[in-house]
Amino acid sequence: METLQQINRTKSAALFEQAKQYFPGGVNSPVRAFKSVEGTPLFFKKGEGCRVTDEDGNEFIDFCCSWGPLILGHAPKPVIDAITETAANGTSFGAPTRLENELAELILNNNRYLEKIRFVSSGTEAVMSAIRLARGVTGKSKVLKFEGCYHGHVDALLVKAGSGLVTFGESTSAGIPEGFVRETLVLPLNDPELLEETLRKQAHEIACVIIEPIPANNGLLLQAKEFLGFLREKCTEYGVLLIFDEVISGFRVGFEGAAGHYGIQPDIVTYGKIIGGGMPVGAYGASRAIMSNVSPDGPVYQAGTLSGNPVAMAAGKAAVIELLKEGFYEKLAAKTEAFLSKITSYCTVKGYEVTFPSAGSIFWIAFSKNTIRTAEGIDAGSMSHFKVLHRELLKRGVYLGPSGYEVGFVSAAHSEEDLDLAAAMMCEAMDVVFER
After folding, report:
1. What is the spatial distance between Cα 339 and Cα 384, in angstroms, rounded to a whole number?
2. Within a domain: residue 372?
3. Which of 309, 409, 314, 321 is nearest to 358 (CA)?
4. Considering the entire predicted model, what is its pTM?
5. Is residue 72 part of a domain?
6. Cα separation, 410 vs 432, whole angstroms
7. Using CA atoms, how far apart are residues 134 and 339, in angstroms rounded to an integer?
8. What per-residue confidence (pLDDT) applies to 163?
9. Residues with a known catalytic role
10. Which domain holds residue 383?
11. Residue that terminates a domain, selected from 282, 306, 323
């Protein structure tokens, strides 16, 4: 029996009309505009645990989790307490604080793949800085990336990128000079032969290869460990630095991220807002030798007034302490697997053309029975199914990010009861998607 709620969007719609007078498209980040799903964007006013409430009072079980950082759920008490206590002493100094040391120590003492780290204010800034560092270390200029991987809105990397661009049917962005684009080589994922051929011919110009080791911005394009291992081997062989962009996978699939999950040592790693407890934070890290090139130790300049912001550092420290508790990731992965298994079993019995690829607590809804490892493998027509699914889930009190190219996240705040309810609602919604 279906469990539906009337979605009142009166206040959200009014706020959106107002927002369109202030912001391009009425939003401060494109995918929020709900362009690929139905209705006007929901304006949220509160989050608690695994639930969010919008301005009209509609409540949803949330699987967006602020696009992944809220691994502890909304407003976890240790993080909120740390933010409140720290903010009372000042929100920004533009100078060092003890909290930077304390968060860095927690991370570095529990991550075998890093020796030094630098905090910044976003994942995009982390990637931008990592690319500059790779160019500074190698003296080479070109960057090799993979189609479908998204690395933030860095000019040279918005070439055949991920979710937001694909959602709007674009493969690049206006406003990027051709000279920048020429410095970027783009290969398909999961093609070792073409990778080796490219490195063999152009390694003398390539500073680095950057990849999301768990590509999660254009679907969840899980790569075989063998391909990632081959990539590591060839980067070493040809003298090219390997950057793992772990803005999504870092601290999400495990404390050591995809590097630890696969047992592969990248040369440079970038991280995102999980290490800020959901606050605006990013970081990049590497060996002592590579990081010695960063100013003021070396010639690669990078700076930021809000880098190491005390409020963000306090929130991050509180979050990281929770992540380091014994069994945290194992419990989270087990919950996610049980949740997805219920939906998968139902859809299999019904014969629905849908699968649920996952990695740790990250999952994707793929309207295909095939294993999809490349951007080309995604059927753009299948997004019409997601549009229906998104609408039907909202009616049933379940919130996913408003794009079928985006992934979903389970948090520590999702109880088994929450997940059982959401699974039942997902199955009901799938019946509507596939009704004949």
Report:
1. 24
2. yes
3. 409
4. 0.92
5. no
6. 24
7. 40
8. 47
9. 150, 245, 273
10. 10-63+327-433
11. 323
Give DSSP secondary structure letters for 106-124. HHHTT-TT-SEEEEESSHH
Decide the pairing of beta strands 241-246 and 282-286: unpaired
In a shared domain, residues 340 and 253: no
Under-70 pLDDT residues of the chain? 1-5, 153-156, 158-173, 436
- d(Cα 100, Cα 216) in Å, to the nearest integer? 29
If residue 397 lies in a helix (H) or strand (E), which one and from where to where? none
Residues 6+ away with beta carbon under 8 Å from 103: 119, 275, 313, 316, 317, 320
Joined tokens for residue 430: 């799938």
The C-alpha atoms of residue 390 and residue 374 are separated, in whole angstroms, by 24
Is 380 inside a domain boundary?
Answer: yes
- Split into its structural domains, the chain has a count of 2
Look up the CATH number of the domain holding residue 374.
Answer: 3.90.1150.10
Q: What is the pLDDT of residue 184?
A: 86
114 in any annotated domain:
yes
Q: Which helix (H) or strand (E) holds 47?
A: strand 44-48
- Non-local CB neighbours of 29 within 8 Å, separated by 6+ positions: 164
Instruction: Give me the phi and psi of 211, to 5 degrees please.
Output: -150, 145
